Amino acid sequence: MIVFSVLQPLEDAMRAVLDFFHGTVGLPWAWAIVATTICVRILLVPLTVRQIHSMQSLQKHAPEMKEIQKKYKGDRQKMNEELMKFYRENNINPAASCLPLVAQIPVFFALYFVLRNFTNHVNPVTNDLSWLNIVPSIADKASSHWSGFLLLVIYAASQVLSTWFMSTTMDKVQRGIMLVLPLVFITVVANFPAGLVLYWVTTNLWTVGQGLITRRLVPKTPAPVPGPKRSSRTPPKDDGGNGTRREEPKPKPAAQPRRVKRKKGGARR
């Protein structure tokens, strides 16, 4: 098939990297997958930095974007045009937040094809294909053994945590859906080779650590200083509708009593 022919060079490269970590470095096959995952995430660091900057920009300008969506709620085409214009004016690239995930898709399929024919590449009798006594073989399905379900639980927990860290710019509904999806797809993931689930657990844990580091490095926005407290006797301040503060009229001084001068030599009563 065309997909197989396109991914064949990447599959060969993946097999060569696993052979290097196992044969040259001396790691077990399962830990070779973990080391390969770490190398992939290190190579994706520039894309990850762009992803973090894009998410910070989206979070910073979220109020303005909500105002645009509210203003053009009835005209979806106009709303999209205004949002794209707003993105260009503020140098925001919404697609940058998906770049690391998109870049990992070919690696994911290459590892899947390698593990699918892994028993033909190595001898499972002379090679240890287990991982921490959790899965008996990284080439078998994760659901083929009772211990594989423990790996699936670790996968679900790590996926929820990574989604929670990387979905801070979404609204509550979208974020709730993204947090529930890993639990829905766990029935599909259970049919993947255990080594592929191990790859995804490792990349999820990397994402969690990345989110923790990002939260420590990014300075928090200081809370606005509250203004002076107003009492019930404080008159309201009118800005006149033009955004400027109108000065309150000064009270007039009390009128002095008028003095009547009496003429000298006046007649007495």
In short, what is this structure?
This protein has one domain. 59% of the residues lie in helices and 0% in strands.
Q: How would you characterize the overall build of this protein?
A:
- With 269 residues, the protein is mostly helical.
- It has one domain.
- It is 59% helix and 0% strand.
- The chain has helices spanning 2-24, 29-43, 45-60, 62-71, 76-89, 99-116, 118-121, 148-166, 172-184, 186-189, 194-217.
- It starts with a helix and ends in a 52-residue tail after the last helix.
- Mean pLDDT is 77; it is low at 221-225.
Helix/strand layout:
Layout: H1 2-24, H2 29-43, H3 45-60, H4 62-71, H5 76-89, H6 99-116, H7 118-121, H8 148-166, H9 172-184, H10 186-189, H11 194-217
